Amino acid sequence: MNYFQPPNFKEHQLAGLFTEKIPKEKISIFKEKIFFPEQIHSSRVISITKAESPNFFKGDAVICEREDLAIGIQTADCLPILIGDLKRRLICAIHAGWRGTVKGILIEALDELLNRGLNPKDLVVAIGPHIQGSCYEVGQDLIDSLPTHLKKSPFLIQKGSKFFFNLALINLTILSQFKVPDTNIWVSQECTHCLPQKYHSYRREKNYLCTQIAIISLNYNIFQMLNELHL
Prior knowledge:
By secondary structure, this protein is an alpha+beta fold. It contains 8 helices and 15 strands.
């Protein structure tokens, strides 16, 4: 299995990574060491404390303070967002598709982190490979579902008779509103839709046979574990 550690995580020695595509059936191999939520395109944030198991199993953001358990999410065009904190032992993984973004999944996760006393200046954020705005053509059904402030440039761009949606920019705007420093944020410029040999794209393939996974842990042994699996 091919994966990479985002440069800002490497700089701050945070154990987070993004993979290239893997068969969906392989996810079960990780389940003893990595918690994957049942993703439902929601604004529900799942909490895992040092003493307790997850309070929910369905949701699209996971906040964890256990060192014996990594957390992960799966994507196939949506935004995978990983958040680490430089001073507190707390991590977060977020699945942000357009539905979850509009419902406020990143807002809910950031609210929860700040409610726990974290300083936005200490948050380090990585957004992994996703469908880029230049490829994310959307129909009227999606446009009708957007709040008014997202139905215009630079979030929604019209090119002739077609409309394109910049999902990453919306989430970056939210991070800015929460005062997360730009210098703490890394965004992949790779497009899942344009790189079929490397990434799975639901919009391209029309199936969920493969996926990318984003993983974050409080324990650097996560890299050794993945290497030992030889996927």
